[in-house]
TrEMBL record:
Taxonomic superkingdom: Bacteria
Family matches, as InterPro entries: DIOX_N, IPNS-like_FE2OG_OXY, IPNS-like_sf, Oxoglu/Fe-dep_dioxygenase_dom
Transmembrane portions of the chain: none
Name of protein: 2-oxoglutarate and iron-dependent oxygenase domain-containing protein
Organism: Thioclava kandeliae
Keywords assigned: Iron, Metal-binding, Oxidoreductase
Iron as UniProt keyword: yes
Length: 324
């Protein structure tokens, strides 16, 4: 039953490869479907992303946040949503699950999809240059390699999700011809146990799917239908995947976009690296008729993904409010 869960299942994705038997693939698709219909979250094992690369990305995340503030501020986030976001510079006012008044207690480096200079869409919203520290060239090298691997994983998952919805395996592909990709290298310092203060306030994600690698500190919690906050501690060798609002709408509510939050009460620094795999900015998102059952109607109005995304970013990030 949607929202009724007390733990987050582990789903082994190793059968989402060409060499797997149809039976093994169908079993994996069914397990993923069950998890996303119930909790909207799953731990993913057998994902095929190099653990060495994952660990190197974590080390680069920590190294970036150890840089002097002056060097980080030189990379302050640009109009294309790329660069450094200082501590407490985002407040999730669009949250549908809580009235959020205090900024998130975190800082981050936002990296997005690479945009070739000669691309027809270069310079459009969200399509501009990334910013990396010159003193740590490995951050750029590792981040771009990591995003390539994570994009491949996102593609495999999108195929499985299409099958879970009764669609052709490649149904989503046309909406991801130039995907909107975010890699956020987050640092959560130890926070005081203060009412309504969070590393990340209760919210649902905007987009398609989120693939999170967290360190061993913990602090992520997921809310079930009863209003209980269920811990989502790190499990070695897995990513935490969750459904975003756009995928929930696209699936006509079959997949649930579940509220979650981060509270770092560990007395340690916490580092995480969520990767957001989203459609092209120009993608027209509308519920597929082929998925609807007899008598069922689409719950969402068709929307351009780029319009939908920009509305949320403009409300939640200080630098965009000041520019508008």
């Amino acid at each position: 039953m949607k929202g009724e869960f007390d733990n987050i299942p582990i789903v082994d994705l190793s059968a989402l490869v060409a060499s797997a038997t149809p039976e093994a693939r169908a079993e994996t698709v069914a397990a993923l479907k069950s998890a996303l219909e119930t909790s909207g979250f799953a731990y993913l094992s057998g994902h095929g992303v190099s653990e060495d690369l994952v660990e190197k990305m974590r080390q680069m995340n920590m190294a970036f946040h150890d840089l002097p503030m002056e060097e980080k501020m030189a990379l302050k986030i640009n109009e294309f949503h790329r660069g450094y976001m200082p501590m407490s510079s985002s407040t999730i006012v669009t949250s549908s699950v809580a009235k959020v008044t205090k900024p998130n207690r975190s800082e981050s480096l936002m990296v997005m999809h690479d945009v070739p200079e000669d691309a027809s869409y270069a310079g459009e919203p969200m399509h501009g240059p990334n910013q990396f520290p010159a003193s740590l060239p490995e951050v750029e090298e590792t981040a771009l390699a990591y995003m390539r691997e994570m994009t491949g994983l996102g593609e495999r998952i999108a195929e499985a999700l299409a099958e879970a919805l009764g669609l052709e395996r490649d149904w989503f592909a046309k909406y991801f011809d130039t995907p909107t990709l975010f890699l956020r290298l987050l640092h959560y310092p130890e926070q005081p146990d203060e009412e309504e203060l969070f590393g990340s306030a209760p919210h649902t994600d905007y987009g398609f799917i989120t693939l999170l690698k967290q360190d061993n500190v913990g602090g992520l919690e997921v809310r079930n239908k009863r209003g209980d906050w269920i811990p989502a501690p790190p499990i070695e060798g897995t990513f935490v995947m969750n459904v975003g609002d756009i995928l929930s709408k696209w699936s006509n509510g079959r997949f649930v976009s579940t509220p979650h939050r981060v509270r770092n009460l560990s007395r340690k620094d916490r580092y995480s690296q969520p990767f957001f795999y989203d459609p092209s900015m120009r993608a027209l998102v509308e519920c597929p008729e082929a998925m609807l059952e007899a008598g069922e109607t689409a719950q969402m109005e068709p929307v351009l993904y780029g319009d939908y995304l920009l509305e949320r970013l403009n409300k939640n990030y200080d630098y965009r409010k000041k520019a508008s």
